[in-house]
Predict the structure.
Amino acid sequence: MSASASQPPAPTASATDPCVHCGFCLPTCASYRVLGTEMDSPRGRIHALKAIAAGELTLDATVASHFDSCLGCFACVTACPSGVRYDQLIEATRPQLNAPELRSPAQRALRRLLFALLPYPQRLRALLAPLRAYAGTPLQGLARRSGLTRLFGPQLEAMERLLPPLAPEAFSDSFPLVVPAQGSKRARVGLLLGCVQRLFDPQVNAAAVAVLSANGVEVVIPPQQGCCGAVTHHQGELPQTRQLATAVIDSFAAVVGPGRPAGDAPLDAVLVAASGCGHTLKHYDAILAADPAWAERGSAFASQVLDVHQFLQGLGLSEAFSAQLAPLSHADGTAATAERPLAVAYHDACHMLHGQGISAEPRSLLRRIPHLLLREASEAGVCCGSAGIYNLVQPDEAAELGRIKAADLSGTGAALVASANIGCTLQIRRHLEEGGHPQPVLHPLQLLERSWRAGGGQG
Ligand code: SF4
Ligand code: SF4
């Protein structure tokens, strides 16, 4: 493996040394779970990296396919007793996998298409606008039942299966530049909307803004913000990731500061309600480290980033907000249910749990909702199969993981599933529905907001 100026060096043999081949990571590994082969496990990949570094193995298309089967969920990092930083190893390996000879023309074309679309909300909107007459309508149900969608091929069928109903608000960003704090101001934050989240689940950002404002937080939402680069970052597409990252930093700098439209006062934090995005935003220091013009700004920006649950738990829900929390309604949050307590299964997104070490904060916030009872899945730390674009480029393995996750979550007996990452939400919704389980999947902030409104909160 060779490194170019725009790529980090490939992992060295010494970076793999701490692995003692104990295999403790194997039961938590999503790819090993569905493929069952050593080469598709963390231990097998580390062994391959050692062999490549020693010149005993060539990174050809077959070897590369065993790295491509990795979901980048980092469950192995959490499980490893020897402190092996597999996350760093795979991050350094991914750019090498993008060499043209390592993937088929069809694979390369699909990736090019995804990287040209997913990080650009305006392009996605143009593509999705005609599909409003299809998504979530009886026509979609008919197309699926008739087997028509299977004719698209596995990758396009996977995309169609994830396509949710498209809300009108998905097609424009209607937030004001500054949403004022209700009551006395306790903090001032920026909010990154996330490119996939704002299209496929725009109510999540609306709920985040409402909850923050109701807790005395002023929210600045730069109108020109684009994608944080998570989709390309997780696939080792570094030049595009750097370009997206610098554009995000510029979009905040354009509105916050002396003489800028959102005011002089600095932000206390930059928040995000999609954990895949949060993980990448927190790595802007490393992503931009090699660029002298951006290294300092990347590091300063990354140091401000917090997941919205982290921030709210640290700030503490205000007394006025807490006093208005009321029992949740069932299902979509509008139809009342006699079910008390209302059982909710919280799904740990991998980039939240393993990537950022966040598990207690969302649970703690959810417990503030009266009569809400949290149920735990038996394999909470195992990936649902979404993993960025994994469920589009490796649809069979991802679908198997989705079925396992849906069965685990529905097996809790919970009436609702809470998920704080848009990719997981779409994947889990699909597989709950296909498995005949009717549980809705909502973001924890949506549950908090609905509880607050049920108690008379307004914003
Ligand atoms: S990565 Fe860690 S848990 Fe996995 S085999 Fe190596 S030492 Fe063991
Ligand atoms: S990142 Fe996830 S899929 Fe990849 S080796 Fe680790 S546990 Fe397995």
In short: The beta strands are 178-179, 187-192, 217-220, 269-272, 305-307, 342-347, 372-375, 416-419, 441-442. The chain is about 45% helix and 10% strand. The chain has a mean pLDDT of 90. The first strand starts at residue 178 and ends at 179.
